[in-house]
Design brief:
Blueprint lengths: L29 H19 L13 H6 L10 H26 L4 H4 L3 H5 E7 L2 E6 L6 H14 L17 E8 L2 E8 L5 H22 L3
Antiparallel strand pairs: 1-2, 2-4, 3-4
Length: about 220
Amino acid sequence: MYRLASLCLVLTACATTSVNEKAGPRGLRADQHLSAASREEERAGQLARWPDTRPGADGTTIDQQRAAGTWFGTWDTAAEHRRLAQIHRSAAAALHAEYEQACDDTAPEIASISPLQRYGISGTPTSDGVLVLLSTGAGPPDRLLAAMRCHRAWMMLDRTDMDDCPLDLPGIQVSAHGDADGIELTISVSDRALVPELQRRAAHDLEVRRHDGAAAHGH
């Protein structure tokens, strides 16, 4: 039976660094993923610099001297933090790719404005969402839906003030049809608990449209 004079087992913490970001309804934005990736890389660098490998007076490392005559172990999680950093970078790249695909050559100043704020006229609550009437300038319907997809993709790039945008809610379904008088846009949400929030946000966008329209006409 072996008798050990002392036993020293040193483990680095295996927990991942916290994201420290407030995610939006559809998750972290691209810039938040990149910030999290930077923190994971920084943590990996800190772990890579431990244990202390500076040479001591007798040529052995500082940690070898500390561990002489003892059990000494480490649990290096630097690789795990680098893996998490790569996951965040990949997620950010995917969001940017989605934006490029959805918006194509649409200018950012156009993509940043919701079509509901640009063309909205009035709205009516429905059992699972809202029905919005838009001016003919929003059409044809295919172009309107493309503009909405672009705006929705744009919102995922940065932490913008989109707490009142109905298009930033998860699980929405949108359909549009129009004629010479205007376009009817139906927005519903799969989560019934989000229906009041969808209706509130749609009403907010229409109010912004009315306010901007009144200001443009000097009222």
